[in-house]
Amino acid sequence: MKATDPTAAPRPAAFPPVKRSEIFGWCCFDFANSAFTTIIITVVYAVYFTQVVAAGDARAEGWWGSALALSQLGAILLGPLVGTLADALARKKAFLLGSALVCSLGTAALAWVGPGEIALALGLVIVANLAFALSENLCAAFLPEISTPRTAGRISSYGWSFGYCGGLLSLVLALVLLQALQGPATWTFLMTGAFFLGACLPTHFLLRERARPRRLAPGESFAGLAFARLGEMRRELPRHRTLAVFFGAMTLFLAGLSAVVAFAGVFATKALGMSQAEIIQLFILLQIAGVAGALGFGHVQDKIGAKAALLASLALWTGVCVWAWRCTGKTEFLLIGILAGAAMGSLQSASRAVVATLTPAGRAGEFFGYWGFFGKLAGIVGPLVFGWVATATDVRLAILLNAGFFLAGLAVLLPLRLDRTPPEV
Fold first, then answer.
1. How many domains does the chain have?
2. What are the E-state strand segments in 117-157?
3. What is the pLDDT of residue 300?
4. What is the reported pTM?
5. In a domain, 10, yes or no
6. How much is the pLDDT for 282?
7. For residue 409, what are the contacts with CB-CB under 8 A and spacing of at least 6?
């Protein structure tokens, strides 16, 4: 999910004209960072960690979920400070590329982690995923600068589409490395680090830094400004009850989605005995289905409204979890994966549309920042719960219980009126 940092500075009155090449450069970061989530968090390294690094230890799933939760907690704590520093110094792009470098190097370093080196592996994953999460904030904080209220949704969707393409290409490259070149799984970690760093080069060359540095007033500090922004969120959200309740629902169903992203590959391996190549092929289809789902539900949403689209998507996700619990064959799981891909694209697309609809005019950066905060909170809850449930029982029961997140989100959404234009505040 792409969200704007809650510490982002207000949009200046006048920006230099935005060129198409600059929008392309911004989208390239989505293209680049999708390789990390696809290869490391979901498809290849999650399985490699549980099967090779942790050598099949029964606690592996719990450790994996805890590492991802800890990195998201770090992003919640550090995000406001990093965002405030980047805004005050007018160095968002430098911070963005710095976080990409840290994530890339941490990812590549996983190639040298051997069996039994669990603490080192988890440490590198925490650092890399923390840098990735911070980079998401910093990248999205450029959106108000390169768009207008009328074009923000369209330009954001360009980035989303680029992200799916980046994930798809990284999966194809991983499949080539593993099958055509008969390389070890560690090659894919090196490839992913290089992919992220190389694919974000257009961002470095094409995206402009439009903000202006600001000086601290007497008695001010960057840390004080960061915590003041969090205090503003605590005071501001209760004034927008519908949006506040929606963020609660969103935290629930994105917790379920985060768990699926973190453990889908592990589930395919442990429950169905799928090979690494088979899992990659499955997720290539899932990425394509995700694009189709986002586009298809986008058209449906325009006709039936964001709430109906969200409810349909949550019903789909509930069915996916229950079906996966009962699934016994690889072909059957392939069909589940296609359905999950379509549901994933539709859920994320409809959620962003609801926030855009309910956000007061001229305050998109601020409220999409809140979206990012609650999305990262979901990233703590979902993997942590799934990982330790799987450790205490098994992955099948964990995926069944994960349906509860989607059902709870659906229940909170039902009484809300979402398809309306927000007042100007």
1. 2
2. none
3. 63
4. 0.85
5. no
6. 87
7. 249, 250, 252, 253, 256, 314
